[in-house]
Write a structure and sequence with these properties.
Distance between the termini: 32 Å
Order of helices and strands: HHHEEEHEEEHEHEH
Radius of gyration: 19 Å
Number of helices: 7
Structural class: alpha/beta
Protein name: N-acetylmuramoyl-L-alanine amidase
Shape: globular
Bound molecules: zinc ion
Number of domains: 2
Catalytic activity: Hydrolyzes the link between N-acetylmuramoyl residues and L-amino acid residues in certain cell-wall glycopeptides
CATH architecture of the largest domain: 3-Layer(aba) Sandwich
CATH class of the largest domain: Alpha Beta
Helix content: 25-40%
GO molecular function: N-acetylmuramoyl-L-alanine amidase activity
EC number: 3.5.1.28
InterPro entries: Amidase/PGRP_sf, Amidase_domain, NAMLAA_amidase_2
Length: about 220
């Protein structure tokens, strides 16, 4: 946002946002969409009012950042333009490094928000406000956060304790921030997404263990 000579520093951006808000949609429309409590921060409901992005910024504390190729995701303004109410669980079918490389490639045509390693490290590659191409289903992509896990579906030993623990902390963080219920309708397998032919995370992914860990994390760090 550019600064104008003579404008006071704190008044400028606020006035601009309010003018856009009231001028673009009307206060009643915005109030109806957002509710009074959210009116204060409803400026992101406006088309094109993208929030600032800073290279290297992450949504989950502890994640590292590597940018996926812009060809593999779509800029959005979630949860303003799309409600986020699903987590899709994936398995990479390759190493951590090869998955990071794949998402960085403009020819891969897919990405996920996060990759969790067998050692528990987490790489974020697409911001949660944006739509990653991870599930093969447009509307599911628009409403979900995609989490990849380093390993192969037919190798149960790949799903280490460190991987489960790190992913559960991440999933709990996502569930808390968007109010997503921790159950199998809202935290689902890629193989359960309509229209996909992918089989991940496969029969060795321990859902009871995973959701149990997510619930424990949530209980330990309430909203
Ligand atoms: Zn997948």
């Amino acid at each position: 946002m550019g600064s104008k000579a003579g404008a006071t520093p704190e008044a400028g951006p606020r006035r601009t946002r309010r003018a856009l808000l009231f001028g673009g949609l009307g206060v009643f429309t915005v109030a109806a969409i957002a509710g009074h409590d959210e009116l204060r921060r409803a400026w992101w409901l406006l088309p094109g009012a993208g929030r600032p992005r800073k290279e290297g910024e992450v949504d989950h504390v502890g994640a590292e950042w590597t940018s996926a190729s812009p060809a593999n995701w779509r800029m959005a303004d979630r949860p303003g333009d799309y409600r986020v109410d699903r987590i899709v669980v994936h398995v990479t079918q390759g190493s951590f490094a090869s998955s990071v490389d794949a998402f960085r490639s403009p020819f891969h045509q897919a990405s996920a928000h996060y990759i969790v390693g067998q050692d528990g490290r987490i790489e974020q590659m697409v911001r949660e406000m944006d739509v990653a191409f991870h599930s093969g289903n447009r509307s599911m992509n628009e409403r979900s956060v995609g989490i990849e896990h380093e390993g192969f579906v037919d190798r149960p030993q790949d799903f280490t304790q460190a991987l489960y623990a790190a992913s559960a902390r991440l999933a709990a963080d996502v569930c808390r921030r968007y109010g997503i219920p921790v159950d199998r309708s809202h935290v689902l397998a890629h193989s359960e997404v309509r229209g996909t032919d992918h089989t991940d995370p496969g029969p060795h992914w321990d859902w009871d263990r995973y959701l149990g860990l997510v619930r424990s994390e949530l209980a330990a760090t309430p909203a």
